[in-house]
Structure formats: C-alpha cells, structure tokens
Write a structure and sequence with these properties.
Aspartate Aminotransferase, domain 2, Aspartate Aminotransferase, domain 1, single chain, three-stranded antiparallel sheet, globular, binds pyridoxal-5'-phosphate, seven-stranded mixed sheet, about 35% helix, alpha/beta, about 350 residues, 2 domains
Amino acid sequence: MSRFLSGGLSALEAYVPGEQPRDKKYIKLNTNESPYPPPESVVKAIGRTEIEDLRLYSDPECKVLRAAVSEEYGIDRKNIFLSNGSDEILNFAFMAYGDKGAVFPDITYGFYSVFAELYGIKTDVIPLNDDFTLDVNAFCGKNKLVVIANPNAPTGLALELSEIEKIVSSNPDGVVLIDEAYVDFGAQSAYRLTEKYDNLLVVQTFSKSRSMAGARLGFAFADNEIIEDLEKIKYSTNPYNINRLTQLAGTAALKSGGYFKENCRRIADTREYVKKELENMEFTVTASAANFLFAKSDKIRGKELYLKLKEKGILIRHFDKERISEYNRITVGSREEMEAFLKAVREIMEETV
Ligand SMILES: *Cc1c(COP(=O)(O)O)cnc(C)c1O
C-alpha cells in the first residue's frame, strides 16, 4: 500500500477470487465455470474484420445486444441493463442504493460485504438457519437495499418465487436485488416480477450457464427508473463498459437455440449423480440447484480434503469462514472430470480411515 491511498481505502479487504494457478494443469472445479465451450455461433461471429474493427470504440448503448436480450426474454429494451460482468451491476447497485444500509445473509457471495465496505454502507447481516435455508421473514419489511443470491452461493439452495415476491412486496421503499448468477441450473427466475414491482432488480450473467466467464458480460432487468440510475452511473464511470468482441459474442450466443439449455441440463444431471456418489461416501451434501455442490464429511476436515485434492491436481473451493469451514464447494464439470474427482476423493477417504 502506498502512502497516497485515500483514507477509507486503507482498511478495505478486497474480494479474493478463486485461484487460477498456472504451475500445472488442474481439473478446475473451483470457480463455477462451464466445462463446455460457448456455442459455435460465437466462434463464427468473430473473424478478422471484427478484430480489425477494434480500433473503433464499442457501442455504448449496445443496441444490437440489447435487442437480442430483449427478444430472448420478452422484456422491453428500456428495462434491460448490460454490464461488464454482473459484478459491475452489483457494484453499481451498492453505490446507488446503499444509503439506508444493506441487508444480506451471513453466508453468501463474498463480494456483497466488500462493496458495502467500499462505499461505507451499514450492513444488516442476517444468519441463515442451521440447515443454510434462508429465513424469509427476517428479510421482510427492511426497506433498505436487500441483496439475495438465488440460488445462494456457496450453498446452492434456492428460494421459491413466492418467497422472493414476499420479500420484494414487503420492502416497497428499498431496492431488492436478486442475484441470479446460477438460476439457469434449476431455480425459478424472478425477472417477470420486474414488470409488477418498481423496487426489484434481477441480475444475471453469461459467466456460468452461458459458458462465457472470460467475456465479462452481465445483464439485469428492472423498472426503467432503476435502469436509468444504473445508466447514469455507467456514463459517469465507463460508458464503453462492454467491449466490441463481447457485444458480438453475447449477441451470437443468444442466437444459438437450445445449446445452453442442453448444457445446463447435462450439468444438472451430473450434479445429481455426483451428489449421490458423495452421499454414498457419507458426505453431507446440500440440495443444490446450481452448477456446484456444497459438501462436508465427518471423516476429514474441509481444508484437508481441499489440500489433498489439490495435490492430486484437482482444484475445489474451500472457504476459511465460520460455519462453513468443514465444507467445500465443488463446481460440476464434465462427466469425465467428475469421475476423476470422485476417484480421487475415494482414494483420499481410504487413506484417511
Ligand atoms: C459468479 C458470480 C457472480 C459474478 O459473475 P460475473 O462473472 O461478474 O458475471 C455474481 N454473483 C454470484 C453469486 C456469482 O457466483
């Protein structure tokens, strides 16, 4: 840290992304990326001409991409916001709506508390129940910025649409942000409710279900006044937030028919298979609706399993955090990757007893 850093930032603890080591080739099950490539339409969308056009700025309004999202979801263009990864929307939302404070669960996406700290926002951190379910009533009537990941990370547990609606309708004077990074793997999206409630912001991303984490593309649905707020912040920070190639790739990806849904279905099938296999080894595994599993065993410490798998060339995510330090979050990869994972876990468990 330099002696020039502004006061408020010196104590800030930054978000720590999952490791991306280059020392050897790992089976990467630690950052919830897709094992499948983007659709062929994306490969075809970017050639020499498009690369030469990089000399030009990207379209700040993202007209073509916005029209494609509008068509895919049947939501008017003025109710759509596009961003450089969905983390950017989360950033903007904390910046825009945190004045009265922010409410989120104790166990959830680690970025929420970082943004709150960055903007000096008071937080009301509500503990999940012992089984990691969310106490819906505790999130009602807050009238502050309420932030909920659905399905939640790293537990994978999802709320019913009726529960989301209860939270949204009981907080008319606060924005309710539903982070749907994993919704395509088995939960119900709340995006249609943005037509009914002016305080609901539904955030999604191309990073997980649409196999494009490296393109950095997020999107959100909300009442057009909320979209205007987000646009105002975007034009005050980075008007060209989505680069030319990502706009092309995103548009092409949306026009690939059922490709991404088929991938989501394969991943959900693999998830259920791995869950059963882990349960056969006496692991406790949450009922995940996402593209990852959250599991612990009474026979091995969470951290130890993580380290032993790493030695065997398999990366999973361990959080050194109260209440969940015995758990690991395991991204659901391809069937072959998961067979290798299960084999390695079996070997480790045999060595352990
Ligand atoms: C991965 C993730 C995001 C962010 O994804 P982007 O790559 O920035 O779109 C947001 N929320 C949750 C809960 C996530 O797991």
